[in-house]
Structures are given as structure tokens and as C-alpha cells.
Backbone:
């Protein structure tokens, strides 16, 4: 069913011109049919982040990722190729691999059917004597997989446009902050369940209109007057110059003096913090149900050995900066259930991006375009 035809959803007032537009109505954040449509039309058809290329360096290295209820294996098949498969045995549907590791064959724990790294069934107890059966007729179901700037993405849609073509210009931006992102390693990972719809986290990221009210230290680090927000079709770029560190002289100033971040459709951000050279921080909001998402934080650095100073920075990002956002966002989710709210006007001022929600408008337009497509 087309979402437009569903009577439980009110007519939205998201107009093409952001200057006259309202936000998505509250029902888009609380209704099961919207959530189900988002999973089918957005998450099963978009490039979603699976892990860092450093986890797939040797033949047989694998990681697994869930795209909602679909478990996927990503495995280094040989020196030049990474493959992805649905993580399900073709015998009676047991899960094949858990977590991450290295395997030179993919062997099902249930009855020991064993597949090559190319997904082809090779052997299984009793299969040689089985009438009218050939192992060569059985193969794991492939999934599209791509690497972009050291980050590995999967897409359950076989007809999807390649990721690099969807994010024209983003690679250059990332490489200007981290020239070799594929050489970084995971230094810290944290997760946090948030009582809010996944779109609330993205809405919040896409505007810094809340920054002066909510993030005191961030506004001491980053000059809000110079903050810019630029939406493109499938990604947006957010950047603000850092204030000079009063404790360091000019010679000690690091190359990266600004905050910058990219939001990738649908639910991921890549961030660079002032004073933190050659590091990137991923933030992902995984939809769990209409009113719950799982926030994932991954910090990639040149070494997994982190100093006390770096530990303090990580603590600030995860436990202060993001907690400020989570407090705001969980509060908004409660408000979206109020009988006293329908939708609100966007505040738009692209010349002064810290006073503007134009990238949230772009995101809401894209959500609607995808959900309303036949
Ligand atoms: S379900 Fe995998 S071998 Fe039986
Ligand atoms: Fe924020």
C-alpha cells in the first residue's frame, strides 16, 4: 500500500520551498506502518554501513551486520575481492557466522554444511549419497557490497546505484581531513539505546539551531557564526571553524582546526573534531522500533592505543556532547505523542546556518519522496 493512501497519516505540510514548509507530522515518528515502510523502502534499498575495511585485511576475515532483521556476512574472498551474503544456511536456514573473525570455509553449526568463500556449497554430511542433488546447485545468496573511504557498505537492493555515484564530492571532503581513512583502526566503540525514533537523531544532527541552547562546550570550540550546512541529494556537509586553542602557540596548532561532519542517507554521520588530526568518528542511528533506536559510536584512529587525553575526548563526545543531544531528542519523542502538537515550521536561513534547519527540510522531503514512491 502506498503510504499516501493510509488514513492514519494526516496530510503533511512539507512544501518544496523550505521558507514556507512545516516539518513531518508527528505521526511519522510514532506509526508502525511508517516504520515498516522505512525498513522496506529505505533500509533495504540504501547503502548501509557494515564496518571498517581494517577488519577485512586477510583472506577469510569476516564481519556480520544486521540490516534490521536481515543478517549479512561480509567476507574477504581473496586478495582483490570482498563478498557479502545473507547469513543464512541454504539447508534449513540456520545462521552461519556470528560476530567477526576469520574462516577459510563458511560452515553451518547446525548440520555442518560447508560453503566456500565464494558462497558455493562444497560439502555436507551425507550429501554425496543424496539422490538428485548436486552441491554445485546450492549457493549462498549474494548481497551488494562496496568500500568507500575505508568504510564498507552493503545494499540489499540488487538494482541500487553504486554508492560512490550517490555521494559525488564527499570523498574529497573526507580525504581533506583524513588522507588515508583505510589505514585507521577502531580505537573505541560504544552503543546507547535511545528512546526516540531514528529520524529524531538525524533531524537533530542536521541542524545546529539547537547548538547554542544545548551544547555549551561545543560552542566554545566551534565558532557558530561561521557554521555552514550544505545539503546535497544523498548527503550533507556541516562545518564550523574552531576557535584557536588559547593553550597552544601557533606552531603547535594542528592541521584540523575545524569541526566537520557529513550525514549520509539514511542514518549515518562521519565526523572530524577540531584539534583531532587524522581521526574520524562515526555515529549511526539504527532503527529498532517506532520509538527506539540504537546509537552506535565508532572512533577510528591511527592506533588502537589511546592516550589519556584521547580517552577524555572520547568521553566528552559520547558522555557529554551526545548525551546533550539524546536528552533533547528523547524529550522531543515524548512531545511527538502530545495531543497538543501536530507539526512545526522550519526555521530557514542558509546564510547563517546555525540559525537554520534547511538540511532537516531536505531530509524530510527525501523521506517523503521515498515513502510515497510507488
Ligand atoms: S541448517 Fe545449516 S546445515 Fe542444516
Ligand atoms: Fe547536537
Residues:
Amino acid at each position: 500500500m502506498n503510504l499516501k493512501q493510509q488514513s492514519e497519516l494526516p496530510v503533511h505540510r512539507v512544501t518544496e520551498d523550505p521558507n514556507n514548509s512545516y516539518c513531518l507530522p508527528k505521526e511519522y515518528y510514532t506509526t508502525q506502518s511508517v516504520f515498516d515502510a522505512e525498513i522496506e523502502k529505505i533500509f533495504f534499498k540504501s547503502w548501509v554501513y557494515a564496518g571498517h575495511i581494517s577488519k577485512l585485511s586477510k583472506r577469510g576475515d569476516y564481519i556480520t551486520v544486521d540490516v534490521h532483521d536481515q543478517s549479512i556476512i561480509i567476507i574477504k574472498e581473496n586478495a582483490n575481492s570482498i563478498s557479502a551474503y545473507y547469513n543464512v544456511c541454504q539447508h534449513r536456514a540456520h545462521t552461519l557466522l556470528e560476530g567477526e573473525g576469520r574462516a577459510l570455509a563458511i560452515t553451518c553449526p547446525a548440520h555442518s554444511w560447508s560453503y566456500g568463500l565464494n558462497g558455493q556449497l562444497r560439502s555436507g554430511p551425507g550429501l554425496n549419497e543424496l539422490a538428485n542433488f548436486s552441491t554445485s546447485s546450492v549457493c549462498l545468496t549474494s548481497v551488494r557490497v562496496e568500500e568507500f573511504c575505508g568504510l564498507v557498505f552493503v545494499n540489499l537492493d540488487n538494482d541500487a546505484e553504486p554508492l560512490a555515484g550517490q555521494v559525488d564530492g564527499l570523498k574529497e571532503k573526507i580525504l581533506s581531513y583524513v588522507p588515508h581513512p583505510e589505514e585507521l583502526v577502531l580505537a573505541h566503540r560504544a552503543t546507547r539505546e535511545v528512546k526516540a525514533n531514528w529520524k529524531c537523531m538525524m533531524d537533530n544532527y542536521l541542524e545546529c539551531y539547537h547548538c547554542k541552547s544545548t551544547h555549551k562546550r561545543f560552542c566554545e570550540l566551534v565558532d557558530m557564526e561561521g557554521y555552514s550546512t550544505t545539503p546535497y541529494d544523498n548527503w550533507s556537509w556541516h562545518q564550523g571553524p574552531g576557535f584557536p586553542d588559547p593553550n597552544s602557540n601557533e606552531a603547535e596548532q594542528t592541521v584540523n582546526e575545524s569541526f566537520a561532519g557529513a550525514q549520509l542517507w539514511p542514518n549515518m554521520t562521519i565526523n572530524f573534531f577540531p584539534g583531532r588530526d587524522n581521526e574520524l568518528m562515526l555515529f549511526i542511528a539504527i532503527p529498532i522500533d517506532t520509538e527506539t533506536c540504537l546509537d552506535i559510536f565508532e572512533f577510528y584512529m591511527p592506533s588502537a592505543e589511546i592516550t589519556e587525553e584521547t580517552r577524555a575526548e572520547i568521553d566528552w563526545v559520547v558522555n557529554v556532547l551526545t548525551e546533550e543531544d539524546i536528552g533533547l531528542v528523547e524529550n522531543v519523542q515524548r512531545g511527538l505523542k502530545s495531543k497538543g502538537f501536530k507539526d512545526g515550521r522550519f526555521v530557514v536561513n542558509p546564510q547563517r546556518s546555525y540559525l537554520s534547519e534547511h538540511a532537516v527540510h531536505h531530509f524530510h522531503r527525501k523521506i517523503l519522496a521515498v515513502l510515497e514512491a510507488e
About this structure: The chain has two domains: 49-159, 179-372. Helices lie at 32-43, 163-166, 170-177, 198-205, 211-214, 216-221, 308-335, 358-372. Residues 204, 210, 214-215, 325 surround fe (ii) ion (ligand 2) (CB under 6 Å). The first strand starts at residue 48 and ends at 52.
